[in-house]
């Protein structure tokens, strides 16, 4: 548990500095992002810190209206969609924080027709901490 707290702390410290941190496996070179101690590719039990380039592509857009969860972003950031995002280093992000800001469902068809769509990190200040979201890189 203590190790998990440390990794979460380091992740947020990275965001404060505008850095995206992952963990590289010394055995197979796989990069875990968001960071995990163990490698999900080969099962090696230790990985080391590395910085992620931030180059990424959305491979699917999911309209907000299809999701139960609304993280309360609309008031602050306007329209957004959910997405599956693959970083240049390989890992695929698909979860609660994989949100593409500043893009509305009116662009869903257009964007899904030209996948993969380049996206870039968008680190935003929320209640006392920073969070990683994405925005279109166009
Ligand atoms: Zn590995």
Widest β-sheet, arrangement of strands: 4-5-7-9-8
> Largest sheet at a glance?
5 strands, mixed, barrel
The domain tally reads 2
**Number of contiguous helices:** 3
Structural class: alpha+beta
- Provide the list of bound ligands, each named once: zinc ion
Identify low-pLDDT runs.
Answer: none
Q: What is the average per-residue confidence, as pLDDT, rounded to a whole number?
A: 91
Determine the strand fraction and express it as a percent band.
25-35%
As a whole number of angstroms, the C-alpha radius of gyration is 16 Å
Helix/strand order, N-terminal first: HEEEEHEEEHEE
Secondary structure tally: strands:
9
Query: Share of helix among residues?
Result: 10-25%
How far apart the termini lie comes to 40 Å
How would you sum up this structure, described in words?
This protein has two domains: 1-52, no CATH class; 53-138, no CATH class. It contains three helices and nine strands; from the N terminus they run αββββαβββαββ. Helix content is 17%, strand content 34%. It has 138 residues and is α+β, with helices and mostly antiparallel strands. The protein starts with a helix and ends with a strand. Zinc ion binds next to loops. Residues 13-43 form the ChsH2 rubredoxin-like zinc ribbon domain. It holds the Pfam family zf-ChsH2. It comes from Faecalicatena orotica. This is Putative OB-fold protein.
Characteristics:
9 strands; globular; 3-stranded antiparallel sheet; ChsH2_Znr; binds zinc ion; 2 domains; 138 residues; 17% helix; single chain; Thioester_dehydratase-like; alpha+beta; 5-stranded mixed barrel; Putative OB-fold protein
């Amino acid at each position: 548990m203590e190790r998990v707290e440390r990794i979460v702390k380091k992740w947020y410290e990275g965001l404060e500095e505008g850095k995206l941190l992952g963990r590289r496996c010394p055995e197979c070179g796989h990069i875990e992002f968001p960071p995990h101690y163990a490698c999900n590719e080969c099962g090696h039990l230790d990985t080391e810190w590395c910085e992620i380039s931030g180059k990424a592509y959305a491979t699917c857009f999911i309209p907000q209206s299809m999701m139960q969860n609304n993280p309360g972003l609309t008031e602050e950031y306007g329209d957004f969609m959910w997405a599956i995002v693959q970083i240049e280093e390989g890992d695929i992000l698909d979860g609660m924080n994989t949100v593409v800001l500043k893009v509305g469902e009116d662009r869903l068809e257009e964007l899904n027709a030209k996948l993969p769509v380049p996206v870039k990190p968008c680190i935003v200040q929320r209640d006392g901490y920073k969070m990683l979201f994405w925005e279109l890189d166009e």
